[in-house]
Amino acid sequence: MILCSGESLIDMVPEGASYRPLPGGAVYNTAIALGRMGADTGYLWPISRDSFGQTLLGPLAEAHVDTSLCPRSDRLTTLAFVTLTGGEARYSFYDEGSAGRMLTAEDLPQIPDRVSALFIGGISLVPDPCGAAIEALVERVRHRIPVMIDPNIRPFFIQNADAYRARLERLIAMADLVKLSGDDLEWLMPDLSHEAAAASILTKGPRVVFQTGGSAGARAHWSGEVISARAVRVEVADTIGAGDTFNAGVLAALDQAGVLSREGLARLTPEAIMAALSQGTRAAAITVSRPGANPPWAHELAALPA
Ligand SMILES: OC[C@H]1O[C@](O)(CO)[C@@H](O)[C@@H]1O
């Protein structure tokens, strides 16, 4: 089971003069996308007992995502108010004292043996105590199973840039797979080109660094090689959840290829990486073609022309 641990929240997406509440959160979106693609998926994050908590549980159940490891909380669900400029999304987060933000390492459940990979990322890596809790989780499992991280950096959310940078450095050094967008790479290494920054991250420990570039497609930096995939051309509704869905495509494809394990990643092939890039970009194309983070089901992915 691929376990996803990180924020779920409600995206308040502009609609006319008002907002439409839609389930979201980077890691939640990845869990939903994995479940919809048919991968054996679990989710670990505090779920509020408020009505938005119920709203978040519905899609997880529909996508057959195992939520038995999710602690329940009397604190509120995080909200993200979204501004859209030509489909490009920006976020303002309301997470002070929320169910997710207040997760501590002591709240973490025992991780069962059936968990075969861990995916982390998003704004939950930024503040404490939840950021420290995720770090503790990674330390507990990383010797047994592969870890993928997508920091999905939201600069306005970061209050202590030095502490966050230090945390990302530790997490990237512990991770096997890293995904970064062009914006993430610019934030991390403003003096380098995206290519050079991604290649440099590869030297910090991960086996593969995935670099996404929106309509320019995606690349994988691996063992001295760069493997590229073109983006699928679609009419963009908004970019919410594109990277999150890409991550799920990558993980699902590596899982299907039987290489999503510590030993498996040691025998990665260019073909397996290409299949991962292709599934990631195809899945992301469907998500951007519709409002909010609404990842594709397996049949929708299969129906997308090559
Ligand atoms: O998690 C932070 C934000 O990023 C998204 O996941 C999109 O990538 C949104 O659903 C959420 O508001």
From TrEMBL:
Signal peptide: none annotated. The keyword ATP-binding applies. Gene3D superfamilies: 3.40.1190.20. Residues 15-296 form the Carbohydrate kinase PfkB domain. GO terms for molecular function: ATP binding; kinase activity. It comes from the Bacteria. The keyword Ribonucleoprotein does not apply. InterPro entries: Carboh/pur_kinase_PfkB_CS, PfkB_Carbo_kinase, PfkB_dom, Ribokinase-like. Belongs to the carbohydrate kinase PfkB family. This is Fructokinase. It comes from Paracoccus lutimaris. The lineage of its organism: Bacteria, Pseudomonadati, Pseudomonadota, Alphaproteobacteria, Rhodobacterales.
